[in-house]
Amino acid sequence: MANILPTSADVDSAAEQIRGVAHRTPVATSRTVDARTGGHLFFKCENFQRGGAFKFRGAYNALSRLSPDERRRGVVTFSSGNHAQAIALAGQLLGIPRVIVMPTDAPAVKRIATEGYGGEVVLYDRERDDREAIGRRLSAERGLVLIPPYDHPHIIAGQGTAARELFEEVGPLDLLFVPCGGGGLLSGSALAAGAMSPGCRVVGVEPSAGDDATRSFRTRTLQTVHNPKTVADGARTSSLGALTFPLVLEHVADMTTVDDATLLETMFYVWERMKLVVEPTGALGAAAAIHGSIPVAGKRVGVILSGGNVDLTQVAAWLATRS
Amino acid sequence: MANILPTSADVDSAAEQIRGVAHRTPVATSRTVDARTGGHLFFKCENFQRGGAFKFRGAYNALSRLSPDERRRGVVTFSSGNHAQAIALAGQLLGIPRVIVMPTDAPAVKRIATEGYGGEVVLYDRERDDREAIGRRLSAERGLVLIPPYDHPHIIAGQGTAARELFEEVGPLDLLFVPCGGGGLLSGSALAAGAMSPGCRVVGVEPSAGDDATRSFRTRTLQTVHNPKTVADGARTSSLGALTFPLVLEHVADMTTVDDATLLETMFYVWERMKLVVEPTGALGAAAAIHGSIPVAGKRVGVILSGGNVDLTQVAAWLATRS
């Protein structure tokens, strides 16, 4: 299914493929948040997913479908962090060699975790190097299968299983807020929503500094951003992909952005009030639901808390800048 | 049942009394923690309890059993924080006026939450004032029913429902680690264990600086501590009580202590690895299970994560002191 757009049937198939291996993560609710927003919010806790983020779903779905020959040769990927950990972990479980191309400035906790899962880490400089070119070169030189972080049918279908589980558990929703970096989670979620809750408006949420997908959505022309400065390190991707862009255009109802200050306040609010450790990227959907311009009052609202891999050294710095 | 020692039947009764009002909190497990300790650990997540800590169980059990006349007059209590919030919230749900005597140095987040639940806060100075005397005076002057934070049969029985739920969910355990301040949670947990997992060794865990209960347990004579300096603000109580001391002597298998540095490292470890926000007092049991001298390898081990009400200003200060 190389570059064919995945469908909701692929999300169903991915749900079978990862069953019993990925966690079926819990759904959290909060009286405090509901009282504050006037909505009824359901938070899908992918911070409790294996590897600490939703990324394991797509990684395991993709790696477990490789042929015996591909498994022997191994895989290579590039990632700012959570996809790296996910590929490292999924490869460990499946006995597949894996090389991870990571930026030198990735949070230390993510790099350590990736190495902890037995991934071979190759570093690159965000300013100077082209990570995709490095990935392609390693693929060519060593015969490794390239598993990109989002623009891949099995990855997209796997990421959609989080929203699929959410609908299974709480039923139809009016709105679903989903963090957006390269659009894998967002397009997968939209595919799941289309099948399981056809009236649900799926909204992608980006950091303001990296609003390429929002601009792409509005203009219907692929826009890019170069190395945006944002605390949402999982959403610093330069653009949507060849698969995720058309999927977003077709299945996503709206896109919105959140500035870093609001994002950090939301992240800490989720920590303090809901007792859930989420990372900034993981709090994008929550920030839009609580502080955004799309009304949620009176509505049944899903939020994907996409990950919880924070570096406490960074947390200390963020807390120090709070007034 | 004024000052009669509660039994496991009272814990059963409390479980009925709080059903549908208190949360039945989830039980978390962690491959990482199990690999590190060699044990199989089950974490009862009372950080997700209403009010952010186990205290709501005892507070609601006690307040909901008051007579109509007592409910009209209202209640008074003294607490460093979580019991205060719990009484404020339980009183709000039951329409009972409540006065809370809190120390001036209680974490701001706890005082704000208590007032947020509509409790009337009266402050006292930990160094200068006697909070129990203030409580008794307010009780006499205003006809309020005094609900102490731990030394009360309904409070003890209510706190025991957390361990009761844990045994219901995971079955018998070899060990159960329980934070200990005044001993309400510890004695209630030991009562539940005695009925539901008779072979389980219940271990109370204190901060090293406030080791009065450990000394009381070893000497079988009530020992006290004056205003101990520890980050575990929920375990700074001066001694076990008239009810909790005999219960601990009879039903608890062992007591142990954890120093503040280990406690903070464990707290942050639970945040980073398990994505659960716990407060220092709430991490006492986890610290003993992971770093303590009581072997857990090969054992089925329960840990009560007793609360998650942290003040992020304090968190910033703690992070700043990490090497």
**Please, how many domains of chain A?**
2
Instruction: Output mean pLDDT of chain A.
Output: 95
CATH fold name of the largest domain in chain A: Rossmann fold
> Low-confidence runs of chain A (pLDDT<50, min 5 residues)?
none
Descriptive overview:
The structure is a homodimer of 323-residue chains. With 323 residues, chain A is an alpha/beta fold. Chain A has two domains: 8-53 and 153-320, Rossmann fold (3-Layer(aba) Sandwich); 56-146, Rossmann fold (3-Layer(aba) Sandwich), CATH 3.40.50. Chain A has 14 helices and ten strands. Chain A has helices at 8-18, 31-37, 55-63, 68-73, 82-94, 108-116, 131-142, 153-170, 184-196, 212-219, 244-251, 260-274, 284-291, 312-320, and strands at residues 27-28, 40-45, 75-78, 98-103, 120-124, 145-146, 175-179, 201-207, 254-258, 300-305. In chain A, α1 (8-18) crosses α8 (153-170) and α8 (153-170) crosses α9 (184-196). Chain A is globular and about 55 Å long. The model of chain A has no long low-confidence stretch (mean pLDDT 95). Chain A binds chain B through residues 26, 45, 47-48, 52, 109, 268, 271-272, 275-278, 308, 310, 312-313, 315-316, 319-320, 322, and chain B through 26, 47-48, 52, 109, 268, 271-272, 275-278, 308, 310, 312-313, 315-316, 319-320, 322.
Indicate the topology.
The structure is a homodimer.
Chain A: H1 8-18, E1 27-28, H2 31-37, E2 40-45, H3 55-63, H4 68-73, E3 75-78, H5 82-94, E4 98-103, H6 108-116, E5 120-124, H7 131-142, E6 145-146, H8 153-170, E7 175-179, H9 184-196, E8 201-207, H10 212-219, H11 244-251, E9 254-258, H12 260-274, H13 284-291, E10 300-305, H14 312-320
Parallel strand pairs in A: 2-10, 3-4, 3-6, 4-5, 7-8, 7-10, 8-9
Antiparallel strand pairs in A: 1-2
